[in-house]
Design brief:
The chain contains 4 helices and 4 strands; from the N terminus they run βααβαββα. The chain is of the alpha+beta class. Strands 2-1-4-3 form a 4-stranded mixed sheet, sandwiched between helices. Helix 1 packs across helix 2. The chain starts with a strand and ends in a 6-residue tail after the last helix.
Length: 120
């Protein structure tokens, strides 16, 4: 049986306060799961991921360019991604890209793309 996880990539250059960072990660996680549930082929992945404890790993990327690079690599491999833009009501400008969730999907597929990134 395959192991499933979700990875959330967070921009380090924004230096978000902990509460803001947590909220952005939450937005990305939820949005990716909602997107996954809309696609029949990904419903099984979401179900398996939830049964295995909904593993989430938060990794850091340097900036928006690097975030988009990894998001595109994941999309090219057929994975669900959810890139989050902030509404700009608190500490950053409206439309600022803050993070991106990849998956839930098979752990090996995600690791193929993100294994070189460090945990936050």
């Amino acid at each position: 049986m395959s192991s499933y996880k979700q990875v959330i990539l967070v921009r380090k250059d924004l230096k978000l306060p902990p509460g803001k960072l947590a909220a952005q990660v939450g937005h990305a996680c939820v949005e990716a799961v909602l997107l996954s549930n809309k696609m029949f082929s990904n419903k099984k992945a979401v179900k398996a991921w939830r049964q295995q404890g909904s593993k989430k790993i938060v990794l850091k990327v340097a900036d928006e360019e690097e975030l988009h690079k990894y998001a595109m690599m994941a999309k090219n491999e057929g994975m669900i991604t959810s890139t989050i833009q902030d509404a700009g009501r608190t500490v950053i400008a409206p439309g600022t890209v803050t993070c991106c969730a990849i998956g839930p999907d098979v752990e090996e597929k995600i690791d193929k793309i993100t294994s070189k990134l460090k945990m936050l």
